[in-house]
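Appendix B. Extra example for self-study. Work through it before the problem class; the solution is given directly after the inputs so you can check yourself.
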Amino acid sequence: MLEAPLPGGRGSVEPVRVSAASILLAEPRPQGSGMTKLAEIILVVLLTASLAIGLVPGASYSHQNRDITAAAPSLKFPLGTDDLGRDRLTRLLYATRISMLLAATAAAATIALAFLIGGLAGYYGGLCDRLIASILDLMLSLPWLFLLLAVRALLPLNASPVTSLIATYAMMAAVGWAAPARIVRAGVRNFRHSEFVLQARAQGCPETRVLLRHILPNLRPVLVAQFWTAIPVFILAEANLGFLGLSASDPFPTWGTLLKELQSPLLLRPEAFAPAVAIAVSLLCFKLITPWGGSQV
Amino acid sequence: MRRHLGKIVRQFAALLATAAIGGFLAAALVRNGPGFEADERDLDARLNDGSRAAIRAEHEERRDVVRGYLHQMRAMLHGDFGTSYSLQRPIGELIAARLPVTAQLMAIGVGGGWMLAFALALAAVLWPAVSRTVGALSTIALCLPSAALAIFMFVAGGPVRAIIALVLFPRLFDTLHNLFQAAYERPHVLTARAKGVTGPGILFHHILPICAPELLALAGISVVMAFGVAIPVETLCDLPGLGQLAWKAATARDLPLLVVMTLMITLLTQFCNTAANWLTREEQAC
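Solution. Structure tokens for the complete assembly:
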């Protein structure tokens, strides 16, 4: 549990208890509109189906039906099979699970990194701030996709599928911190001279404790907004990387690697666009449930 | 005048320094990556031991990243961009051949994206009835991966050169819509409208001057965004431009080409940002 006084009453500082998980998850969501509720339901259904597919006996993303390759949709295979005879629907559901959960994990990691770096710059100021600001400028001046391409292409040619999957999302987290860090830096600078921080420092509170227990909880809305905005950004980035053959390697399915099928003229049928539809629908839902609009997508 | 000149020189030096640091970081990153020593030519069964040894010697040459980078920078100052390892051609020649393709693609993309976003944002502000439809259209376009859009356009036989415009449009629309909305709600604009000033008069004399700094900044960002989109579009649609070259450089771990591409992209971005900052400051000073 974290303890943080909120700015407000002069002198008397009321400690507020905030759990670490609540910083990312308990921000009040937009209320009311039917579309928002529908978006929430769709996301929950998508995520539940993707988690439940693991419980279905025989549903494997890597099982190859060698006698039914590139099959059209049927009752047994509602989205048909790919060129190796793997069930497209099963792979799509596994891909949903991997893409959504890993994008959320990468978003959480990127926000933690952004808080660490932006927080240091904003809190200490001076040379540290100038140095970090220059690094931020440099990071922000390179196109995301080019940076990801360059970094992702560094992996060895024989990297295992798990390594390539983890590396893809880890790199997205490592590259994506610059924009949120700039916002965090501005937020921390605002709090640096506020009364509750001055009071905490006057009472001998260590700097790390001031940053983690007093400033962090007050930055919650900013961090939550950045977290929800980062998820769709990472989903789209992975989709583009996968399309270029630089995401997880076979047999792991992600939305990006499934989209790669579209490059094969023989497999180009309407059902092959299902991953694109899944991405579009889930991003639309994220945009609808994000009160800040997720315009950085 | 002298103060202005000093500022320009400082900005230019900062621009070059940032690009040089970016290039060095790219070189260091690629050189120290776990896959740098891997070479697909090692798997070629036709090569004998001598050829394999020559390939390994080639890697040895590239081992010292600082010396290699300084050597490349020195050569670049004399107009020699080096030779691409993977494509076996001078980098300057590769860039010169591919630049027109990307320039044309980006010009169509940025111009088209701006025209579409500008017109629709203005329409959404002026006629609230269309606001919801246009907003929904923009949101849907925002949720489509640019690579999927490129393939869809390619398969449908549509104009692949318009893809960048379609990808940029929703990213510009949101900002433009918010800007215009705020500008049209300003008291002096409301007064002008109440006094009977017509649509174009309001737009050119009241709205655009208010929004100019933000529009200029957005213009700078949109060029960089367009290059980001050009990478998958050129790769997937097999357009021989700089985006495809960047992809080839990354996948082939072509260090000299990657360094030049990083320098070029950083310079382009920094130039756009600096120009937008300058114009914004000039606009605000007026």
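Self-check: Chain A touches chain B through 43 residues (CB under 8 Å). If your reasoning did not lead you there, revisit section 3.
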